[in-house]
Amino acid sequence: MIEFENVSKQYNRGGYALQDISFSIPDGELVFLAGPSGAGKSTLLKMIAGIEKPSSGRIIVNGQDITRLRAGSIPYLRRKLGLILQDQHLLNDRNVLSNVMLPLIVTGASATEADGRARAALEKVGLADKAGAYPLELSGGEQQRIAIARAIVNRPKIILADEPTAFLDRDNANKVLNALKAFRSAGVTCLISSHDEQFLDQASRVIYLQQGRLTDHWHDAA
Ligand code: ADP
Ligand code: ADP
Q: Where does ligand 2 bind, in terms of residues with CB under 6 Å?
């Protein structure tokens, strides 16, 4: 469960990047965060990951008020999330398998276990055959799917993806979305930002932002 209670964010006493946002998302939903560039989508995702702090309001993730976490606890929060953010690039000097193994190595998994789980994660995004390739040898769509494999290898309950289909053609964007959607059946909550409205009908819930305000919010009755 992800809950926002009257959350606002001001950067450096500038205008509001987000203003008085409230919503709650039950587990296992595929949520689209929609709205034009500058609407506050990245800011909202970064706040769930503890990368940015709200100026006011509360954010509760799986029962924990993350706005009250000490700085030292933020890395533990982040490890429980699958993050596919704009500024987290693959390491170009390591092959695909090594990139995907990294989050497991960091949390102390053995090399054998990390190898097996990373290969299973690559399988899930349909890129098992690229394990030995280097990121720069892959297309943009493949690189995004590798980033998804890296994000899910720790079995997160929540996946946050910031514009994962930007710069991709429709075919590749669909592959990226399908890779994300596959985790939903396992109870994983996916929150995906996009300014591209062509995919909205695939969501179970859509949150619209405009100039930092929540302007619309709907979810499937089913
Ligand atoms: P989106 O992801 O929808 O494009 P952002 O969350 O990136 O929107 O930005 C929302 C607003 O906050 C914009 O006006 C942007 O300029 C501002 N903003 C974002 N990040 C920063 C920052 N680090 N410092 C100052 N202003 C920022
Ligand atoms: P394995 O049990 O060998 O890890 P799985 O098919 O269960 O194989 O998982 C494949 C990959 O997908 C693994 O790397 C796993 O960490 C990842 N994964 C992430 N989230 C989930 C989830 N909720 N359920 C199953 N697998 C997940």
A: 116-117, 120-121, 124, 152-153, 155, 183, 186, 188
Q: What are phi and psi of 200, to 5 degrees?
A: -60, -30
The helix (run of H) or strand (run of E) holding residue 2 is: strand 2-10
d(CA 209, CA 37): 10
Distance from the first to the final alpha carbon of the chain:
18
Name residues whose C-beta falls within 8 Å of residue 125's C-beta, 6 or more positions apart in sequence: 145, 146, 148, 149, 179
pLDDT (tens digit, 0 to 9) for every residue of the chain, 222 residues total? 999 999 999 998 788 999 999 999 999 999 999 999 999 999 999 999 999 999 999 999 989 999 988 888 888 888 889 999 987 889 999 999 999 999 999 989 999 999 999 999 999 999 999 999 999 999 989 999 999 999 999 999 999 999 999 888 888 888 888 888 888 878 899 999 998 887 788 899 999 999 999 998 888 765
Ligand 2 site-directed mutation target among 79, 104, 122, 124, most atoms within 8 Å of CB: 124
- Tell whether ligand 1 has an atom less than 6 A from the beta carbon of residue 42: yes
Amino acid, res. 205: R
Distance CA 25, CA 18 (A): 18
The radius of gyration of the chain's CA atoms, rounded to the nearest angstrom, is: 17
Indicate which residue's Cα is closest to atom 4 of ligand 2: 117
Question: Which among 81, 29, 16, 24 is positioned nearest to 58, based on CA atoms?
Answer: 24
